[in-house]
Amino acid sequence: MDERQLRILRELGELGSVTAVAEALLVTPSAISQQLRLLQRSVKVPLTERDGRRLVLTDAGQALAGAAVEVETALARARHTVKEFVARPGGEVSVAAFHSAGAAFFPLLLGALTGPGRPVPRLSDEDVQQEDFPRLTREYDIVLAHRLDHAPPWPPTVTATTLLREPLDVAMPADHPLAAKRRVTPADVADEPWITVHDGFPVLAVVEAVAAAAGRRLRLAHRINEFAVAAEVVAAGGGLALMPRWTVRPHPALVLRPLTGVHASRHIDALYRPERTARTAVRTVLTELGRAARSIRGREETP
């Protein structure tokens, strides 16, 4: 049995005929009769009987019709609760991000969401391979993910809002000979040792593009995913590395130089399942992430 069938039974008890129930519910009498037959199959005792030309409720039918009132009341209360939850401006919103996005976005998000009636962010760091970001939307309301410009789009199971298109620059010690150049080419950097990410992470594809453009294999000296750690290794003379221009805190001993000749940028996207945005609180957090992205983008300084 379902809610609609119970309502039909209740209406039949009050209105006294299938035709009257059909008119009240704006359907055909045959549709009402079909739903009553389906309901009867789920119950072992007769729910209706003939009284002349009228179809009336048996004692069991009257008892079930009375219970239907309680069911409708409970369902109405449940719908109202859900509606209130969806419309509530506050409440918890879970946000996951890879490390550099978390470092850049989380403080701004926390600052923007202070005060009563605002969403309460629950923040997590998730450093996963690019293809694993969509699955995180099962666990989190919003996931900050990264992908390269030429990478395949995210699957249709998630919605993506691009927050930033961030250049990836070459990081080097401030006293490195290449630091005197305003921009560097693949040929300039091809003979240097490199610090790059582990396999499966998108920045590695840019390093491979540099090698292809230079026409020779690069020497990958160190594999480090965390940009802050890689920056320290670059500063210590361990090699060059690709660094995001805006989302990594500047290192006093390093300079960043734009790379020409290859596409060296990444998208930072907010991924979420469409149904999550039914909640006002989730939409508010997405709005604040967009404001945070504009703030981060506004920090740009010419390298």
Helix proportion range: 25-40%
- What is the N-to-C succession of helices and strands? HHHEEHEHEEEHEHEHEEEH
* Beta-strand content bin: 15-25%
Which outline best applies?
elongated
Please tell me the overall pLDDT: 90
* Estimated radius of gyration: 31 Å
Characterize the biggest β-sheet: 9 strands, mixed
* Count of separate DSSP helical elements: 9
The end-to-end span amounts to 69 Å
- By helix and strand content, what is the structural category? alpha/beta
Uncertain ranges: none
Number of strands: 11
Task: Report a brief summary of the structure.
With 303 residues, the chain is an alpha/beta fold. The chain is built from nine helices and eleven strands.
Mind explaining what this structure looks like?
- The chain has about 300 residues and is an alpha/beta fold.
- The chain has nine helices and eleven strands.
- The strands form two sheets. Strands 3, 4, 5, 6, 7, 8, 9, 10 and 11 form a nine-stranded mixed sheet that branches.
- Helix 7 links the parallel strand 7 and strand 8.
- The longest helix has 29 residues.
- The termini are far apart.
- The relative contact order is 0.15.
List keywords for this structure.
9 helices; elongated; 40% helix; nine-stranded mixed β-sheet; alpha/beta; 303 residues; two-stranded antiparallel sheet; single chain; 23% strand
